[in-house]
Amino acid sequence: YTYAVSQAQIDAGTSIVNTATADCAELGPKQDSCSVAITQGKKVDLEKLVNGQDADTPASGPAVEVGSTVSFDFVVTNTGNVTLTNVSVTDNVLGTIGTIASLAPGASQTLTKTSAAAAGQHANTGTVTSTQGAGDTDAGNYFGMAPAYTIDKSVAEISIASPGSLHYTVVLTNTGNIDLSGITLIDSLVASPGAA
């Protein structure tokens, strides 16, 4: 015959002791017992997604516009065989993300937090802990795009007294953190000032 072990017994972690008793009219009862140890595996996995991407490294993180909303998903999965309680998720930049009261073996739950994108490369690390001691960390990266440039126009001549040429110089400087494309230059006096 068989006996079905419950999740509660796995969570308790104590050995399962089973005693059989036999009896007959001629001899009276006799007993024998056997014990099976419970092997607990207290494990949890944290996957942190940035705008839906598994952005563990700077190269794998999304590029977003400064000021736009960045969404951080913290996917917590119980990969062990013990029910986890008080599963707490925090982030070294975003702070407290949330707490999952109970997470059964094989179950997953996602906690989400958003923030405004800042300029430059950013990395932050999520951490999950539990009452049972299971924990994990995972990093998330993104790059905040901040396009910017300056234009500086100068003329070589201070004044002119007769018909002739004025010599202009225009300097465009990329002061942002990404390459700029589709650059054009239009001058109010010169029809074709040249390529930017």
Q: Write down the Rg.
A: 34 Å
Distance between the termini: 86 Å
Number of strands: 13
Strand content: over 45%
Mean pLDDT: 94
Category by helix and strand content = mainly beta
* Number of DSSP helical runs: 1
Unreliably modeled segments: none
What percentage of residues falls in helices of 4 or more residues?
under 10%
Most strands sheet: 5 strands, mixed
Strand-and-helix sequence, N→C?
Answer: HEEEEEEEEEEEEE
The order of strands across the largest sheet is 5-11-10-7-8
Your description of this structure?
The protein has 196 residues and is mainly beta. It has 1 helix and 13 strands, in the order αβββββββββββββ. The strands form 4 sheets. A 5-stranded mixed sheet has the order 5-11-10-7-8, with no helix packed on it. β7 and β8 (95-103) form a beta hairpin. The protein is rod-shaped and about 140 Å long. The mean pLDDT is 94.
